[in-house]
Amino acid sequence: MTKLPSIGKPISRLEGHFKVTGSAKYAGEYDVPDLLYGYVVNSTITKGRIKIIDTAGAKALEGVIEVFTHENRPSTAWFDFQYADMDAPPGTVFKPLKDNEIKYNGQPIALVVATTFEMARYAATLIKTAYAEKEFETDLESNLEKAREPKKGLASMLKPPPAKPTGNFEEAYRNSFVQSSGEFKHGTEHHNPMEMFATTVVYEGKNKLKIYDKTQGTINSQMYVANVFGLKMKNVQVIAPYVGGAFGSGLRPQYQLFMAVMASFKLKRNVRVTLDRSQMFTFGHRPPTLQFTKFGADENGKVNAIYHEAIAETSQFEDYVENVVNWSNMLYPAENTLLEHKLVPLDVYSPLDMRAPGGSTGIHAIEITMDDLAYQLNIDPLELRLINYSEKDKSSDKEYSSKELRNCYLQGAEKFGWKNRNPEPRNMKRGNKLIGYGMATGIWDANRLLARVQAIMTSDGKVELKSAVTDIGTGTLTIMTQIASDELGIPLEDITFSYADSAMPFAPIQGGSFTTATVGPAVKASCKALKEKLFRKAKNLRSSVLSDAKFEDVVFSEGFIFLKENAEVKISIDEIFTFNEGKEIKTTNAAMPNPLVYGKKARAVHSAVFVEVEVDEELGIIEVKRAVTAVAAGKIINPKTAESQILGGMIWGISKTLHEETILDDQFGKYMNANLAEYHIPVHADIHELDVIFVEENDDFVNDLGVKGVGEIGIVGMPPAIANAIFHATGKRIHNLPIHFDQLL
Amino acid sequence: MKTEATHSTSLIVNEAAYNLELLPWVSLLDVLRDEIKLTGTKKGCDHGQCGACTIIVDGKRILSCLTLGVMKNGSEITTIEGIANGEKLHPLQQAFIEHDAFQCGYCTPGQICSAIGMLNEAKAKTREDVQELMSGNLCRCGASKGIINAIMEVKGDYHE
Amino acid sequence: MNNFSYTKVSTTDQAISQIDGDIRNKIVAGGTNLNDLLKYFITKADKLVDINPIAENNSIIRLETGGVRIGALHTNADMAYDPIIEERYPLLSKAILAGASAQIRNMATNGGNLMQRTRCYYFYDITTPCNKRDPGSGCAAITGYNRIHAILGQSENCIAVFPSDMCVALAALNAAVNIKGPEGERVLAFAEFHRLSGDTPHIDNNLKHGEIITSIDLPAKGFEKNYSYLKLRDRSSYSFALVSVATGLDIENGIIKEARIALGGVAHKPWRSTEAEDFLKAKEPTRINFSEAAAIILKDAKGYEHNSFKIELAKRAIVRNCLMALNPESQRPGAKPSL
């Protein structure tokens, strides 16, 4: 049995056994009777309309049940808002099979439903489509004149527009002792979780569906299905206990959900639709973005002028926005700032949040510009950050609820051996390899939303907690169990955290590093309420020894309620249940930030990243030999799973900097490397020494657990730290991502 | 399209015999997942680009998505469901849990089967060798450090 | 994939008769490329002839010439780790181990390796023009994203490259390909096996349809003292070469008696230059001489918008790999650069 408290202990994932034995079931793996397989057909043009779509050849095949197109799909909801999901940007949500209009290359235009996967896939190739093509624009750089302000909407709550200009940037920059300016170009990226998007719909009769979906929000998918197909919420159950990676791609219902539900609904059959890997490139992505920075500093290194502009791609139908330019003034307290974020609508699908959306883009530009200032000033890059250290978020003029970034810098530098750095570029060598040290800062929001959790104690003293929240590999199941265990004084083994079912109490979509801070307090609140209920029952027992006690005076542990002062005075849980006639005791509670107080302080997680690269001087080949990330993210519930989150983020950082990029060929308006052979993510041979430090940070403001969230912070500082290390090694400043090694030749 | 004949195919999967009537166009991966209902073997790309479908066939690790069910008639197959000895986990499975060598878990069965294949091949001497010989298994969550650590730990006292 | 019939054969003659010269009948061995192409609907088949049971084509035997004959059905992994190959032809072993992944090498056969098709993005995307996949439709790569494409020997019809690593070593070793067909047996020198794209980019090699590769002969000379394989790519492993180099040097008393340099990832076939190899004869194995040879190999190279870097990269890779060949123990797993 695990000793309490369990918070802070490196508990192994509670679902580990299922994952290593292959018994964990993902959305496309549920064995349901008489299953039909759907295969999606995608548009081969980028813009225009379908003139003719001939499905006769496909339908004629034995085993093909139906082919759905815009011409014969069942009627669905009429209004745009009925298609909106929890992560929908301002605009008009894309509606699969709505009409004959083609808005982007790869748009789903038909669904073949057959008795086997092979037959559905083959039949899809027999569908003949004639298009009327229109001219399209898919290249960001040649359409910059279309850049405009983004529309605002609900999504702006978590992604506020950049702060208004302060001081006089132009003048301050002109008069700065040193100036650094840069232009940064990022390519398109796709999430590419290992599990391809899949939905299995079980038709339960009378417009009642049970849906196994790949999603980061069971209630988000439930809402979407209920609204779009006109079903009652209680008749749509969405279940997703195992999600094979998502990284943001599951924040919105993807089109396989629509397709599978449509087919099941119409055919009154059980249907599965699984996308293939190339189709994984036909919905959201990290948008290509151009950035421009101009930073000015005085002779002491104090940054006094900041300009940061981003121009990013969006679709023609939604204004996808992320926080690219909001970060610099949160970190560095310059008095004169000018921050702008614009969008260029193109004939592509809407971009979609992807691990540290905006942050991993903007921090790259900011921290390279800072590095350049440091070289110009002849100040150590770490020292420059310390010179510009701020206890306040200058952009909102609020104190941070907590900020241990200074200790991240110091502890990270110590562990890494930053002091061994020779400041001069191209001056550290190992054999004929150039060695470079680089560092950067990371920052990400510490947010919190509303969640509800139910706690149920049964007569055996065991507790089940219920929440609709998913666990996309983050460790949520384990962490929530730990929180409940400590709150109730019950060992982990006696607690079941039931989750990822839309029939359970509300949790928002799992993203933005806010899940632990959102659901954790709700777990704690419901456990506390359960204890209060037990305590009231204990007091009401005939001749209760606790009749005069107050809740504050008692402790719950090992099946008893004790008086803190005198452990001899106790009532067993058994006794309470006997009195309760064995009936379970339950409570459902919500937790959310206090709106009157929550906005009064700035809230963020921070990191300091140190990287060593080795560059083959003659061939340009780059290896990230070592990296240390020191993180201040409040209380760490489980150092094992939290470390994995940071390590994963660091590897994403390596990938973003050196490997991954979706290539759009503007001749066709389509992505050319829509597969895992040519969309490069790092392999084991690319990953060397990676270390994580969690810096102690106490924060009683963010929530009553003091937790902030670690899903995104691991990636944000890596790209600039690697790029800065490459500069230190080679003397070459590369501003574009990914960096191809041949750029160093 | 003319209907092609099915082929009687016998597979021994995790020591159980299966006699199947298979159409030639069904990949071994889909035979395992859809016919035999062993979904532990994962489909991450279906094109030999990710390693999630790695299984052990006649003692060797291979990609089940790149071969056909009919081509493996008579073969002995071990999938992730056959790695543990009853309730007792294989040392690698245990090491994966302890080293937190996965997050979402989707690449995990392929990583474990691949690692067992690699240890049987006995060609990896150093950590760098292990990294290279495990590079056919992608992990998008970034669990690389835990995966290689888990394998190195088991490799230390691995005797087949 | 479309559905097809399937048959297993146990002799080469049965295979030849099952194929019957019909282009819609395909041979399958490892299946690692063919099954993939079928799934993408790039290749369509009426019948798959499974040749795995042909025992006569699955062995390694020593030849009277002093060379070694390796069966076409031997897997890449079995060949790379075969003690004879490791000892006599370590260049071949290293090149094989630089390709694909361990799982794929356990499946893929030697004959299949020769037959694999290009990884050009446009070849793989059936919605775009490609003269190799759809003769006469055009080449989208020339004006498209051509980072991975050819710089040597290409035509305006096709700038695809041949993706094999093993074949780069086989080219350097002057291997020969033994073929059997309806008209009997024949032998093709390795250099004659693969073709340049020219006006017929849809034809990858000179194996006629209906013929089968039975084995590959390695000559006696294996360059086992001074050899190296170097592969440069966008990640450390499990990806195709942007540029790869196989080098074998025969050095006596500090003088090069014979040099072999073959390039991968730069042309429609493994690329060699007799002029450069002749240049190195009777010279000292120095950086300057290797640089000169590299310049000769690349003198007619032509790049495109996204792959011009390959010209300089190939030169430097040749020099480095020749230097690595002087010190073969320095080679790293995955054919990464060393020294």
Annotation keywords:
heterotrimer; B: alpha+beta; Ubiquitin-like (UB roll); DNA polymerase, domain 1; 2 domains; 5-stranded mixed β-sheet; 5 strands; 31% helix; 16% strand; C: 339 residues; Uridine Diphospho-n-acetylenolpyruvylglucosamine Reductase, domain 2; Enolase-like, domain 1; 4-stranded antiparallel β-sheet; 28% helix; FAD-bd_PCMH_sub1 (chain C); flavoprotein (chain C); FAD (chain C)
Report on the architecture of this protein:
The complex is a heterotrimer of chains A (745), B (160) and C (339). Chain A is α+β, with helices and mostly antiparallel strands. Chain A folds into 3 domains: 27-135 and 191-281, Aldehyde oxidase/xanthine dehydrogenase, a/b hammerhead (Aldehyde Oxidoreductase, domain 3); 144-189 and 285-447 and 599-744, Aldehyde oxidase/xanthine dehydrogenase, molybdopterin binding domain (Aldehyde Oxidoreductase, domain 4, 2-Layer Sandwich), CATH 3.30.365.10; 449-592, 2-Layer Sandwich (Aldehyde Oxidoreductase, domain 4), CATH 3.30.365.10. Helices cover 23% and strands 24% of the residues of chain A. Chain A is built from 16 helices and 30 strands. The radius of gyration of chain A is 27 Å and the shape is globular. The N and C termini of chain A lie far apart (58 Å). Chain B has 160 residues and is an alpha+beta fold. The mean pLDDT of chain B is 95. Among the domains of chain C are: 5-53, 2-Layer Sandwich (Uridine Diphospho-n-acetylenolpyruvylglucosamine Reductase, domain 2), CATH 3.30.43; 226-335, CO dehydrogenase flavoprotein, C-terminal domain (Enolase-like, domain 1), CATH 3.30.390. A 5-stranded antiparallel beta sheet of chain C has the order 4-5-8-6-7. In chain C, strands 9-10-11-12 form a 4-stranded antiparallel beta sheet, with helices on both faces. Chain C is of the alpha+beta class and 339 residues long. Chain C is globular and about 60 Å long. Classes of the chains: A alpha+beta (745), B alpha+beta (160), C alpha+beta (339). The interface between A and B is large, with 62 and 62 residues.
